[in-house]
TrEMBL record:
SET domain mapped to chain residues: 87-370
Biased composition (Low complexity): 23-34, 596-607
Keywords in alphabetical order: Metal-binding, Zinc, Zinc-finger
Keyword Repeat: no
Region (Disordered) residue spans: 1-79, 592-615
InterPro entries associated with the record: H3K4_H4K5_MeTrfase, SET_dom, SET_dom_sf, Znf_MYND
SUPFAM superfamilies linked: HIT/MYND zinc finger-like (SSF144232), SET domain (SSF82199)
Organism (species): Psilocybe cyanescens
Protein name: MYND-type domain-containing protein
Residue ranges occupied by any MYND-type domain in the UniProt entry: 135-174
GO cellular component term, pick one: nucleus
Family annotation (PROSITE patterns): SET, ZF_MYND_2
Amino acid sequence: MSDFSSLKKRRKVKETRSFVAAGTTSQTGTSTGTRDVPLPSKLDHDEEGEPNAMEVDSDASHEKSRQGNTSAITPLSRDGLYASLPPTLDVRMSTGELGNGRGIYSKYYRKPGDVLLSIKPHVAALSNEHLEEYCSNCCAPKTTSLRRCTGCKLLHYCDSKCQTNDWSFHRHECLAIQKWSASASAESSGPAHVPGDAIRCLGRILWRKQKLGHESIWVRRFGLQRKIHNSELFQAREIDSLQSHRTSLSKDPNSQGSQVYTQLAHAVVRFLGLKSPEELAEYGINNAAELVDLVSRFTINTFTISTPALAPLGACVSPLVALINHSCDPNAVVVFPRASAHSKKEDEPLMQVIALKHITPDEEILTAYIDTTFPRENRQKILQETYHFTCRCHLCVLPPNHSPDMREAIWCPNKCGGVCALPTEENSLTRCNRCKAPVKDTDAVLDAVRVGQEALHKAEALQFTNPKKSIQLTTKLVPILVSVGLVPAAYPLLALSRLCASLLISHLLPADSNVEEVFSPEIQAAQHGTPTKHTPEEQQEALDDAIRAATRASSGLSQILTEGHPVRGVALAELGKLLTVDEPHPTYIEPPIKDASPAGTPAGASPSPSPLMMHSQLKAPPYPPSGPPRLKLAYETLVRARTELMIGFGSGKNEGGQVGQQVRQLAVDVEKELMVWKTGVKNALDDRPKPAKK
Ligand SMILES: C[S@@+](CC[C@H](N)C(=O)[O-])C[C@H]1O[C@@H](n2cnc3c(N)ncnc32)[C@H](O)[C@@H]1O
């Protein structure tokens, strides 16, 4: 149940893997394609006896040719960085007009839920707000207490083993943090007292570079095999092998992106305590351009470490996983499932790439770098600004006469079950894809979408400082967007519904009943001040509102994300858990037993209608249901959640990760409760006075 505590944190998810938020990067950046990617020489291939590139007859390259893609796909030698790839995967280089540089390809057929790659990130840093709650070595959450570093008094660890394991990094970092904090205190307008996670992560990368130097295991592998050149040594160091987009930025040094890079570069130099740029040489950085390169590599190739329930915790770098290219409709996903049966504590945080779809031999593994619930234009903008490329996946390059993408759709005005593309300012003409009925009042739709977008931005900005206002905005706008016909997955309805659901859950009124037990102290602490006592009816209303919002969010996600996507699985798990919360004021009344007069009802008189009975006379049943039907719905939702989590967080030993395992246990408990209820009803029926025999 404690996973609810992660909801508030999850609202902070940028869902882009990048450190630099989309809005803070260059507005003008253009893709540099694959110019910066170091290509292993032909000699390497021959020496290693790898198959000749052009002999590979991959389905993936056929697929690209069918689409008119002129790219050629060449396997790369499994040397250096690539040597640690499992034998089931390959690194290949896709060049040409539509090439996307190096990428990871599957050599075999894989099914949804298969773990494709498990790896501990090279470096990781928790974000500032999590330093006291999570171990800085293994990223485990605090259970009882964590040990604080006596030097910097900032980082915390599970135990002395975790502290020792992190010491090779923290040795340098500890002093740097102390110096940073001291100088920040001295300068009133100076930097924040604690360096951010991006700065600490970059610091760790540089200390690692300094330590490994020419001793990098990959360098030694190269060195043993043949005489090496300095340039190869440089390439062999993991971080240097990552893609950089420095040249795109340098085209416009005044762009916001360039400025962010420059600021980060300055902050890192300050963090390392360097006096002159020459001192960077011992970290393998010889000039300013190389420093910007490092920052660019970091920005493009960084992952967000998340809890098993997808709440963001910090940043990490894994050069191998960073080789995976992007698609807005990915066939794989990167997660940190903390599947206890599978992972050892010393391997945590264990980063896993999991198949979301069936993957055929020679197919490229593709993950999403950004939140794919956004519409095409927003996705393209973020990808261009942060990653400097134009996505050409099938969602970005829709074929002519395609059916509308549910991210940008409204229901048919004739309610035939079909959908129409969301009208735009440029093209307000839109028809149902099924019955061809035109949408008449497109202005009302356009206005609602515009107001919805504004409210979303405001609600996002206010969610931590003024959550009540944020709840008001989201709850007000959702029905407006629904009334003009937006489908649950459409933008901004889905984004508002998700935000609304997470805010309502975080601010559920603590009830006298077990709501208090279900929601963690963090959730309760999120409510400012002493909670006012609310009536059971108000508590029930708040719980039901949260369930309705979570249902809307979950159905929107199901319209656009692949079955088994972890975001879908976690949303369903949250809904299932909410449905299991004891109702503070249930509206359920036992349905009357047909052949017996209800107690206290005079024979012949009709009983006063119960809320349930009143509702049952209406067409749509009340939602959420109350009493045992609610418990039954909770059970079904948890079972569905478990099926999806078994894909998104890995099947087999992973068992759907930590959340999948918790959901399974909850489903078992609910099933038992349902059995008790059924037995109770059966006993009550058996105990009824039997009608006298005639
Ligand atoms: C994390 S790296 C992925 C590995 C990269 N291809 C390489 O060779 O190192 C991200 C960069 O790869 C390229 N990339 C990733 N996905 C792409 C796509 N779908 N289309 C074009 N370029 C892509 C972009 O240059 C992007 O900035």
